Amino acid sequence: SPVRELIRDRQTGLLVPFENTNALAKTLLEALSKPSHMLNIRNNARELIKTKYDLKISLKQQLQLVDSMRS
Predict the structure, then answer these.
(1) Nearest CA-CA partner of 38 in 60, 59, 14, 54
(2) CA end-to-end span of the chain, whole Å?
(3) Do residues 38 and 45 lie in contact, with contact meaning Cβ atoms separated by under 8 Å?
(4) With a threshold of 0.85, does the pTM exceed it?
């Protein structure tokens, strides 16, 4: 799933099973009770986006792909 490609549970975000309201509530309470842990997760997520999804890097990779297809 696209979400799992971007979010690594408890590393770059928090994932819960779809339509599981109990798991969602439990995860939200945990997140609210551990702000320092959430800060680490937020920092990890930001770093992932900056390094893997930076616009300049993504555009360069796309141009390389297009160039390779023309060859």
Answers:
(1) 14
(2) 32
(3) no
(4) no
